[in-house]
Amino acid sequence: MIGALDRQIMACRRCPRLVAWREEVAVTRRRAFIAQEYWGRPVPGFGDPHADILVVGLAPAAHGANRTGRMFTGDRSADVLVAALCRAGLASQESSVHRDDGLELLGCRMTSAVHCAPPGNRPTPQERSNCRSFLARELELVRPRVTVALGALAWDAVLAVARERGTAPRPKPRFAHGAQAPVGDTVLIGCYHPSQQNTFTGRLTPAMLDDVLARARALAGAA
């Protein structure tokens, strides 16, 4: 079932701006990767199809997942996140470099609110809405006990799915690092995104990320 969803995601062309951008990036490329063939398509989720913990990011990075074809692979955010997942016992190795590097997620899955790389890492509200049915279906299929939202837009995307299902908490819980709320059958935890902007400035430290993942494991019954 999750394979059918992945194929639907990879074939999607709902958002003309995102289609044009992801394909342009795949042709022009970054100088450091000029010899590599870019994925240049929507990037599906990755990991355990029945994971207890679902990690939701914003969107593929232009020269990360849009290049490699796997969520949180091939960029600095991936380095930080996957190393933390490994420390938490949720990943088989501490690096995520390319699709065939042997990485396995253990009781965990990674996905995103938007599956195409957006210009400036800023999908429009309509583009986020266009992609919401994919997140809704992934939540339905995976049925995670805990959902970790990396950033406010991922947090809002999960809550938007819950509103459509009539399971959103009231009042709407506000995003913050470490915020927690029951949302339908899952527990939603907020975490700052492991972007360079957050990790280089110390807004998100390895210890802060470790604490969130340890709480996620505990809530999922995996501690």
Question: Which secondary structure elements does this structure contain, and how are they paired or packed?
Answer:
Layout: H1 2-10, H2 16-28, E1 46-47, E2 53-57, H3 65-68, H4 76-87, E3 108-112, H5 125-142, E4 146-150, H6 152-165, E5 180-183, E6 186-191, H7 196-200, H8 206-220
Parallel strand pairs: 2-3, 2-4, 4-6
Antiparallel strand pairs: 1-3, 5-6
Quick rundown:
The chain has helices at 2-10, 16-28, 65-68, 76-87, 125-142, 152-165, 196-200, 206-220; strands spanning 46-47, 53-57, 108-112, 146-150, 180-183, 186-191. It is an alpha/beta fold.
Explain what the structure shows.
The chain is α/β, with parallel strands linked by helices and 223 residues long. It has a single domain, classed as Uracil-DNA glycosylase-like domain (Uracil-DNA Glycosylase, subunit E). It contains 8 helices and 6 strands. The protein has helices at 2-10, 16-28, 65-68, 76-87, 125-142, 152-165, 196-200, 206-220; strands at 46-47, 53-57, 108-112, 146-150, 180-183, 186-191. The chain has a 6-stranded mixed β-sheet, with helices on both faces. A hairpin with a 2-residue loop joins β5 and β6 (186-191). It starts with a helix and ends with a helix.
Notable characteristics:
223 residues; alpha/beta; Uracil-DNA Glycosylase, subunit E; 6-stranded mixed beta sheet; 8 helices
- Structural class, by secondary structure, is alpha/beta
Main beta-sheet strand count, sense and barrel state:
6 strands, mixed
The total number of structural domains is: 1
Q: What characteristic shape results from the CA principal axes?
A: globular
Write down the CATH topology. Uracil-DNA Glycosylase, subunit E
User: In percent terms, what proportion of residues is strand?
Assistant: 5-15%
| Oligomerization | single chain
Catalogue the unreliable spans: none
Number of strands: 6
Q: How do the strands of the widest beta sheet line up side by side?
A: 1-3-2-4-6-5
CATH homology superfamily: Uracil-DNA glycosylase-like domain
Q: From the alpha-carbon coordinates, what is the Rg to the nearest angstrom?
A: 16 Å
In CATH, the architecture is 3-Layer(aba) Sandwich
H/E element order: HHEEHHEHEHEEHH
The residue-averaged pLDDT reads 97
Q: At the first level of CATH, what is the class? A: Alpha Beta
How much helicity do the residues have? 40-55%
